[in-house]
Fold these 2 entries.
Entry 1:
Amino acid sequence: MKDAASVKNVVSIIKAHVNEHLVVVVSAMGKTTNALEKIIGLGQAGKSFDAELTNLKTFHAAIINDLFAHPQSIINQLNDLIVQIERNASAHGDYDFIYDQTIGYGEIISSVIVHHFLLQEELASQWIDSRKFIHTESTFREGQVLWNETEEKIKELLPVVKNKTIIAQGFIGSNKKGETTSLGREGSDFSAAIFGYCLLAESVTIWKDVPGVMSADPKRLSDPIVFEELPYKETAEMTYYGASVIHPKTVKPLANREIPLLVKSFIDPGLAGTKIYECHVDKLPPLIVHKENQCLISCKVTDYTFINEEQLGLIFQAISQSGMRLHLMQNSAISFSFCVDYSENRVLKLISLLSKNFEVYYNSGLTLITVKNYDQKTFNEYRSLRGVILEQSSRSALQVLIKN
């Protein structure tokens, strides 16, 4: 959702399925999450973010004024939420903790707007706070779901969903102290899967600005294929490599309960989209995934010994402590290299930990390209790209890391 027209489109989709007992999970509007990240960064650096906060408020107020005949009460709620953003972003403490206390307000604001617009359209709607239903460990920025507690709480919604459309926020949960945790960027898909799993849903549908799951990003490559259907396993591997249409954690809970996942077009809801379920598809074409903002970190031993299991243990322990996930790894006799998403705070923390035992070098601003199910043509094409600094292949996937 990026404007008033998008909210109206959401409501038209809900109207088309209003008798199907819906839980609707919404994301932040437009580039709100990016704006909040900037606000958090400025706040933690002790700098003013007044201009950014004003822009955020103006953006949402314009949408509210376009949607509502009597907007003032919703504007008042927006103002209250903006005050909370300002307070949280200005607080002092651990960066990841401050991040999670602030970043989910984009989803909260958008869910309030959608809920009230449904009421204006005379549709029965119930707003809920996802933080009271999705319970996680205190792993800030990468909340690990406590499934038993979460399922027990979400099941309380079963009587409600029979009579009202439930509007919830994606991306956020809370720990046992009631502190907000986030589920990772683009985590709204995962939130929908959590609700679907716990409520034994008939299906979960993700609405995107593409016609379904595609063999490549249409902004990068012309004429990508739209998959009509995909197996859970294939989809899970695609998300592992960075296919951004679905959050990596979305597939597992749905596959565990054999709940189909549908990926449909928000722009053209009449399109068939992609159905992901337990099926078999012969001869899948090459799938090409670009993952930007990557960082290559290399650890070298300092005493001319070889990289061994003990040293690998130290490296993986540091990676785990930094809360990072590997996308590619490769070792030689005296070095171990790996690729992660570039997050300055986490990368610097990781380098500090590794430097106790290794010489550490890193390159940022890289792009990781994965070609899954490659054929000879795509294998040769992507190996010969300019700027390749690391290459790795298996029987089913080729990965190349390139300088932009």
Entry 2:
Amino acid sequence: MRDTRNAPCCWIRGWIALVVAVGLAHASCALAQMYKCTDTNGRTAFSDIPCTTPPGAAGSAGIGKDGVKQEMLRQPTPSPGNTSPEAISAMCAKSEGSKPSDEVINSLPGAQREAVVAVLRGLVASAGVARDRAQQANLQRVTLRVDASRTAIICMPRQRAQPSGGRIDTYTAFRVEPNGRMVTLQPSAEPLVTNDANEPVTMASRCSSLVTSCVRSQPKTLASLDPCFEKTPVCPGGRLDPAANCCPQACKDAYRRERAAGTDPQAAFMKVLFGDEAGAASCVPGMPKRG
């Protein structure tokens, strides 16, 4: 692996400790038909139900009476055996010699680039903490390639013990889509998805970040959770674009109810998005309860 210590996107610098993923959730086994809806102002929403204004033309795309354009997006069919050691190894074999480089990393879209850098830094940090020579050696064999669909594939070699004795190479693979959505594949384990607005923890975290960023951007005398929560963009119905940054309408409604009941703004904010230790559920379906 070439020396990237002075490069702007260096992923090995300082053995920076970053977690590879936060709030991993199980990937859905079934993929519904997806629709891309674009209104007359150019605003785009992705959903698993048809656009609210039906398209006027038959086929995969059309313009509705109110100017809403609908496109049906073809979904890939998941491979049922894609987490077997052999399947992951076969996928990673295609990456042989594709070392991570600043040229490749800097060529990626922003969300994808951030996710890829986080994965690489996490692998570096894990090897550094473990102080294991074999793991350090595996780090030098990490590969990164971009396939025909512009998905970045990162492969980390692992050694797997054999019943008959000895060890063979297998891999942990990370597939990072252009929108930043990441699927982690480990041998004989269910795929794990992160950085996808359709996953509960990611949704709650992004809504939280929108509100808190708004509060931080205002003068201290004007900073308030109330107007910031109110003006966050509302998530459209149905399945979202994985890169979506928005708050569910149910969360905004729940926050208003808590405030009307006299709950302190910060307490209402935390309770609504993440639940509380008394067992109150988050406004985001699927979030684990804290209590």
